[in-house]
Every structure is written in structure tokens, then in C-alpha cells.
Amino acid sequence: MASRSCLTIILAAGEGTRMKSSMSKVLHEIAGLPLVGHVAKAVLGTGGETDLAVVVGRGAADVQKAVGKISDTARFYEQTERLGTAHAVLAAREALTETHDDVLVVFGDTPLIEETSLRAARHKLAEGADIVVMGFRPENPTGYGRLIEQGGKLVAIVEEKDATEEQRKITFCNGGLMALSGKHALKLISAVKNDNSKGEYYLTDVVKLAHAQSLNVIAIDVPVENVIGINNRAELAEAEALWQARKRRDVMFSGVTLIAPETVFFAHDTLIEADVLIEPNVFFGPKVTIESGAVIHAFSHIEGAHIGANTSVGPFARLRPGSKLAEKAKVGNFCEVKNADIGAGAKVNHLSYIGDATVGADTNIGAGVITCNYDGYNKFKTTIGSNAFVGSNSALIAPLTIGNGVYVASGSVITDEVPENALALGRARQVNKEGRAEILREKYKAIKASKNK
Ligand code: UD1
Ligand code: CA
Fold first, then answer.
1. Is the N or the C terminus of the chain less surrounded, counting Cβ atoms within 10 Å?
2. What is the distance between the alpha carbons of residues 254 and 247, in angstroms, rounded to a whole number?
3. Alpha-carbon separation of residue 216 from 3, 125, 170, 199 (angstroms)
């Protein structure tokens, strides 16, 4: 199949008015990736090259940007009037005039389509089918086009509105995605007329046209969730749930332990090695990678972070973009790390903010230590060497360098460079006044008594 050339057309011109949204429907996200991005990813993952053409409508520039992040060769065509699915495909006429062995038409709002289904459809083309329709069996077929079969061949697709009582009883439905032989695609789609109750050019009509020419048209049965279309935000959330369930299953089968899988949320690109343990209630934003042996404790929020081998994160940790934990590092409860390298074996265990910083290997950051990286206008860097000890509740005013083996006394405000192995004290000296506590108590007691008179 890899030798067969392929053109995939993604229809993404949908208005999606039921989303009640200021942006195009296909830009709404699942697992941090726009719907159309999920479709493009599945399409490009089918093995064997495919050219990609995307038919866009409203929000065209943003849709192009989203697809551009996944494919730098995708071409875009605008459908200015919404006259039906066949009309939408013909917006990409230029691409269709090229000679491709296979032409796939997929919808930009069916984010759960899997590579296996797309591959199965192309496989049927390779075996000699001229059109392959992706059928499915929904619990409730209302609203879907019905697949009319005769002797194992598909003879027509009838839209709900145009169907007879008898036809509406059919439960095998059109998922909307279609594979066509490149030899016939353009001719068939161009021949579609808008003679139906909606006055639209239906892509589905190519089936009866092809059947009339004795071409070989078949339907394959794909899993329901593959063809789930998103029309409103409730369906968006349902698709998110299905996607998360799929990802959790994949992650667990690849050797990751999830104690309460239903409470862990992944991003589209989360990468986790085997033998990682994730406790309940953890959220992953985009761009997170975790190496083997790490433990992510409960209630942590992680995005844009690399978490090294045998590290420990949380509970209640927040890792923001640019966080890198080397092996055996620890970031504990109520700590926030941003754009910072935490060295091997280093510990940031309690109530800290470490931002725009480097922390050397085996350094200990005490409770409540804060890097003061921002003056309201500019950000500055803090560099801390290895084997250092920064005492609790110290404020490190960046830009700042703290050498290897340094000891920073608790409660310090450190503004100047600390050389290797120095002890830095940045706080007022303690003064003890003998017996003064008793005198103070008497004084305060007298004030209170005079008020109560
Ligand atoms: C379509 C199928 C129906 C199938 C169902 C599955 C047709 C005629 N009908 O119906 O058999 O059961 O999908 O969900 O194909 N689009 C454009 N431009 C247009 C019209 C549509 O880009 O002018 C895009 C939409 O954005 C959407 C897709 O094509 O992504 C499908 O269009 P939609 O109107 O939702 O078709 P359905 O009525 O759901
Ligand atoms: Ca639809």
C-alpha cells in the first residue's frame, strides 16, 4: 500500500453554530490539540505518504495555522458558500486533477478517527474497490445517512431527510468518511446534483452514480467512536472523555501504573516511559515527557516539562513550561517550578517558587525559598551550584549566582553573588534583651486594664 499514492481531503468548512463559539468548530481542542489536528495526525499516521488538502471556511487563517503545525506541506482551499459535502470536496478540485491512486475524504470534526480504519479503507481500494464508505452502527441512527446494500455491494446512501419509512429502519449508517479510487473520484463528484430535500450537493450521491456505472462500491464497518462528529460542547466533552479513556488504556498497557486512571488527564503528546507511577488527580498539559521510575504524586499539574528517571513530583506540585528535572530530583508539595533545571538528586521539597533558574546536582532548597526573578518589567536568572544548601524562607534576588557547596542561612535575602563554599547571611542579627519580656507583659496588661474601665 505504501507504493500507492494518496490524496486526503479534510473538510473543515463547517460553521459549527451549535458550538456557540467565536472560533471555527474544528479549532476546539481535545487533549490540548484542535479537532482538525487530531484528524490530520491520524491521516498522516496511516503509513505511506499522503498529500493533504484542507477545505476551509470561517477562521481559515487559524485553521491553516493549526494544520501547519502538523504538516508543512498541506494545501488549503476555501469553500466560500456552503452548498454541501460534494461541493466542499470540489473546492480542492486542483488537487483532485492530479493523479492519485487513492482519494480519502474525511471530516475535520471527527477527531477520534483511527489510523487502522483509514488503513482498512485504503486496503480495500488496493484490493480493487472503487469506493469504500466507512459505515458504523450507532445506537440511535436518527440523523445519519443510511447505507443501502444489495448482495454485499453498496448501491446508495440515503440521507435521513430523503429516506422512506422502510429505509429509516436500517441501522447501518454512513460515518461520513469515504475512500475513492483516484481514477474515478473527480468525475463522480463533479456529476453530483443538488436534487434533494436540502438542495445540497451530497458527496454521498457518488455511491448511486458509481453503482449505475457498475463500479465496485462497498461499505466497511468501523468502531462507532471513530466517526463521532462534534457539533456542540457537550459532544466535545464526550469525545474528550473517550480520547482520555483510550490514552489511559494505551499508557497502562505500555507499563505505566495509574492508581485511579479516570482521574488522570493527558495531553495529545504526553510521553511516558514504562515503570512510571501516577497517583490520582494529575493533569498534564502539552509537551510533557517522563522517564522510567518517576513517581507523580496526587494533585499535580504539569505542562511543558521533562521529568527524569526516578524522580519524585508532588503531591500538589506545579511544573510549568521549561521545567527539567534530572534523575532522582525531587519537587515536593506546594512547589512551583518554571523554566528551570533541577539537577540530579536536587531537592525542592516544600512551598518554593523556582523560576528562570538552574539548581545544581544534590543541592537542597529549603522550605519556602523563592527566586525573585521579576521586577515587574524584566525577568532575571538565578544560578545555584551543586551540593549547596539554601536555608528555609530565603529570597534569592535575581540576577544571582550562588556557587557550589554554598550554605545560605535561613531567612536570608540574597542580592549578591555567593562564592563557592561560602556561608551567606543576609538577615538582621538577633539581639536578646534579658528580662524584657516580663516588662512588656506588665505594660500591655496595664493598657488593656485602662481600656476596660
Ligand atoms: C453527513 C453525511 C451523512 C452521514 C453524516 C455522518 C453527507 C451528505 N451526509 O451528514 O450521510 O451519516 O455526515 O456524520 O455527506 N461541510 C463543508 N461544506 C459544506 C457542507 C459540509 O465543509 O458545504 C463539512 C462540514 O463542516 C462537516 C462535514 O462536511 O465537517 C459533514 O457535513 P454535515 O453538514 O455535518 O453533514 P451531515 O448532515 O452530518
Ligand atoms: Ca455532521
1. C
2. 10
3. 22, 10, 21, 27
Q: Which three cell numbers stand for residue 145?
A: 445517512
Contact (CB, 8 A) for 134 and 117? yes
Spatial distance between the Cα atoms of 168 and 352, rounded to a whole number of angstroms: 63
Residue with CA nearest ligand 1 atom 13? 176
For the chain, the structural domain boundaries read: 5-227, 233-424
| pTM of the predicted protein model | 0.93
* 188 CB-contact burial (10 Å; exposed 0-12 / middle 13-18 / buried 19+): buried
Question: How would DSSP label each residue in 199-267?
Answer: ----GGGHHHHHHHTT--EEEEE--GGGGPPP-SHHHHHHHHHHHHHHHHHHHHHTT-EESSGGGEE--
Q: Name the fold adopted by 5-227.
A: Spore Coat Polysaccharide Biosynthesis Protein SpsA; Chain A (3.90.550)
Q: Are 258 and 292 in contact (CB under 8 A)?
A: no
| DSSP 8-state code for residue 410 | T
Q: Which helix (H) or strand (E) holds 119?
A: helix 115-126
How far apart are alpha carbons 294 and 311 in whole angstroms? 5
d(C-alpha 122, C-alpha 320), whole Å: 42
Q: How far apart are CA 392 and CA 230, in angstroms?
A: 51
Greater confidence (130 vs 14) lies with 130
In the numeric block, the cell 509537551 is attached to 287
DSSP assigned state of 282:
E
pLDDT in tens, 96-155: 999 899 999 999 999 999 999 999 999 999 999 999 999 999 999 999 999 999 999 999
Binding residues for UDP-N-acetyl-alpha-D-glucosamine are 11-14, 25, 79, 84-85, 145, 159, 174, 231, 320, 338, 353, 364
CATH class of 233-424: mainly beta
- Mutating to test ligand 1, I would choose from 19, 82, 107, 227 the residue with most ligand atoms within 8 A of its C-beta, which is 107
Pocket of ligand 1 (CB under 6 A): 11, 13-14, 55, 79, 82-85, 87-88, 107-109, 144-145, 157, 159, 173-176, 202-204, 229
- Per-residue confidence at 295, pLDDT binned at 50, 70, 90? very high
For the segment 380-398, what is each residue's pLDDT rounded down to a tens digit?
Answer: 999 999 999 999 999 999 9
Alpha-carbon span 344 to 338, nearest angstrom: 17
The answer to whether 332 and 314 have CB atoms below 8 angstroms apart is yes
